[in-house]
Structures
1.
Amino acid sequence: MIGADLVRLARAAGDEARVRQAADAVAEVAARNDLAWMTGEALRCRGLADDPEALQASVAAHGHGPRPLRLAMACEDAGSCLARHGQAERARPLLDRAAGGYERLGAARDLALRDGVRNVSLADIAAQVGIHKSALLRYFETREQIFLELTAEGWRDWARALHAGLDAAPPGSAALVADVFAGVFADRPLFCDLVAHTPLNLERNVSLESVREFKLVTLEEVVAICASLHRGLGLTEQQSVDVIATATSMAGALWQMATPGPEVQALYRSDPRLAHAVVDVGPRLVRVLTALLAGFRTEARSVGEELIQ
């Protein structure tokens, strides 16, 4: 969605050269990757430069891919564009389709926040939006695809917040970087829940195309975070990847430990012998990541000194 966001910003600023530059960059990436959603995004970016037909083509392209949120956004953009051009009748079904997509994903998100990802079934989501389960399967491959989509969007949201925190932190402090990581996770309980379920369940009951597109989303974010960690702490690419993998896997695991259910949680708190089982996610994540980052930073400096010598 970054390309579309850049096109919007450039249009708002009246910078037509940057509008074309952003749209051309996305088109170039799409040309190198045979993915329906990338083709759809390239068409969407071209369409946002005020080409209604390209936006219609974007809807068709996203309709062939496993990204329901992107399809909803493409429908919204195409419908809004048609409405601006006085074609209300053509716009209405597209806007209704977009609203339905947002509603279905929003229902899954709300239920997962309330009940936990593991406890939400396809029937629960269907009931929340007032349709039959079989109707919901017209829009999603499986229950797992719904949550994998939410996880992909969660990665983008988490990464944006992480970049903001890392950019504000003074360079060179492992403790501050660890605190930023932990704080961003603590503010996103659903994301913590989702990342724990991703390798266990969500990637296992969807199409290979869905898995590939999800991995490409996470790869894009990981590359950008690695660059931030290199600037702030001088970490190597491999060290940065290890930090991200450790942080996400630990946040997911610790969140599961910290939310065992009200009955089990009451048991832990009632018996002093079980006090160790009461997990406070943020502080523990800070301690582990501080030690890991400090060690990697020392290692990176040692390697740099050896190269100089």
2.
Amino acid sequence: MGISTSKTQGITMKDELSIISIDDNISDRVERMENEIENKGDLINDEISNKIEKIGQLVEKIGKIDLKERLKEEFADIKSYFHILAREKLTLEPYSLEKFGELVSFDGLKGYVEKERYWVNQPFAFIAILYNEQEKEHLYHTVEPELSIFERMVLETLYETILDTLTLYDTSDKKKSEILENKILELIDGYSIEIEMSSIHKIMYYIKRDYIGYERIDPIMKDPNIEDISCDGSNIPIFVYHRKYQNIKSNVSFESDKLDSFVMKLAQNCEKQISIGDPLINSTLPDGSRLNASLGREVTFRGSTFTIRKFKEHAFTPIDLIKNGTYTSDILAYMWLAVENNKSIIFAGATASGKTSALNAISLFIPSMAKIISIEDTHELVLHHLNWIGSVTRESFSKNTSAREIDMYELLRQALRQRPEYIIVGEIRGKEAMTLFQAMNTGHTTYSTMHADSINTVISRLEGDPINVPRVMIQALDILCIQMLIQVEGKMEGKRVRRLDSMIEFTGIDPQTQDLRFNEIYNLDMKSDTFRKSGKSYVLESIMARLSWNEEKLKSELENRRLLLEYMVKKEMDEFEIVALIQSYYVDSQNTMKILEKNI
């Protein structure tokens, strides 16, 4: 009967026995767990008792007041933590001196007297020019923000993570500085740390300086007073050429591995490669500065080196030549008339004598609609003419590639097929000089520079290898300007300045001796630092004959140009205003002079 009842309920005897067995197992496990909990509870109680005992001993030792202070500190930490969790998204506040104070400070160096200081990247970097009376030397001292230990830790952490977090999406259509700012703020916000806004400005300065700037030499690159930057090897102070103080040692240097890395970075900025197998590079940086560098100790035994000849942000103008005393307004009035009337000119001189600067300044006299083609090894010339084709040479990409090298000779050959009115060649030093003089002899107006410090040296270089220009072709050159870097006496005693040493007109070949005939029209008196005019000008006579001018007309035109140049200096015009005034004179000289007379 029982069996039949069990079947009716769907449970067999075997099932009942299994259930009883499970119940017994559960009871055993529950009993074991209770025992374990009881044992652990005893252990926990013992641990708590020990903690309480230790706290009691600690209270007796440090006293109730110290314990109270510790509790306050703990409470402040917890409060700060909850504040971080609840705060809004981190944003960069614009720098304000009143709010954040000064980010950089400098109290001088022992043994040095500070001559002057000036900002190059306010409020983050300035330059202090120091002088050591005992050593009789200047020091170019760059001053940047000092970082606390905490700020340096944050900076190093950001250095390690920021590159990994940048994506292609981040770099799509934004400026590099904006991308870095956003990413830095995002990372700092993710660290959940309390940090002052002034510290964020400092950290952001260093990351921008190192990633999109020129690292340690960034303040020097931003200094408009610097012409050249020279690194002679690892752990050697970098030297700079300052417009006011000439060659000065700086407080900046590179360790060996840092220097190698920086030179490779400079090469990459030029879109070039440098390696131990090919350790030399000569190229142009993105801002137009000229770079020459070597990697490692393969060819320079003191380590990697680099020399940067800084590109002048604004084109050199006739005003700069007058202000610096390189030329006078009378000489430039003569040059203006010569350029306007298609006279070919070469500027010669030693290194850093201002040849290219003078060439760039004189080129502003070229009429605005004239077709100009310039040819350079590295881009330096800045013209303000719309009808201007600027070209630069190109090295072969690789010795194993079919992409051939394009040199100045090839560019000059191509230029002659484009019917230019003015051809400007950055520097002649090889077979391109022959083509340039052929262009002169076929009626093209050409301007160029070359390394030579006297008329005899110029002729020797032109006639000798590898230039080899026949003497009969040299006579096509109209004017030769020889420039020098000299030390003058008087008020600027001991200061090195750029000066026109002599200006020479070529007047042909002597039929008897076959020697070149030339006429020195201006020369420099070094003692008085003034220019002397000697003899008549054959160039001006040829202009008079071609335009059917008389002496009075010639003097009037020269005087007008001299007055315009002095007016430019007086008004301190920039390059754009100078070009506008020159072109205005070409269009309507009488009206331009009337306006000038009213404004004087």
3.
Amino acid sequence: MAQRYRLTIGKRTVDLPPGEYVVGRSAECQIVVQDELTSRRHARIFVTGLGAELEDLGSRNGVLVNGEPAIGRVKLGAGARIGIGEAELRLEIVDARASGAPTTAKFATPSSPARPMSAPAGPTPASGMTGATFTGVSAAAAIFQIRAALHTEEVGPLRDATLRLRKALGTTSAADAALRSHAGEAFAEAAFALARLTRDPDWLDALFDVQRELGRVIDPGTVKLLAALIAELPYRRPEACQRYVEALRARTPPLGPEELPTFRQIELLGGLIAG
């Protein structure tokens, strides 16, 4: 018996019979996500008797599936988390034996019946589903945007994505250590690039402040790049780096043996800034 699928956003649920569903900001999409970071036609979900898949429709800000960028067609398993803009959609597999039981879920009308994945989807009335903010997805989406902007070195998109990540980090759970580590690395790279591109020392202050808040030791490669940029600008604001060094000294858990050599380099960096 074929599996049945249900999509949730916040408190809303929508059953997905076999077919194709376009997700986006446009009212012509089968699943509407009202979010400024969502493209008009952002992604497409395919549901067949064999399973469910998703593809990005060339959206500006990308799609995350379980925290990873969606490249090409991605298979969706039970409980898959789909990050679109600042919204999280969760795909659930519903027990087909319960198909006769009462349900409060709406049924989305597919843009076309189930068919080969290459077939295009056409517009149909929207389901009216709206998005809900999910900070983990917001941080992951900002990291994805930062990576893209670093390749082009466009200041505007890079600045916007970096500020978005800074905001998301303010409320991201400390328990999500992996996400916070990736976020700290991405923020350090972005803030360094912005300081280099704009010659604005505020970005170096922000770099040290965010790493301090995360309790993260900057990687050795970034420390070397920072030393060169600090001398080039020049950057003569020791306070942010000093706060960072003091926080690392008092960190719980304490710095490990593998972190101490880099910490010594950061201390020397503070001396370079102080002149």
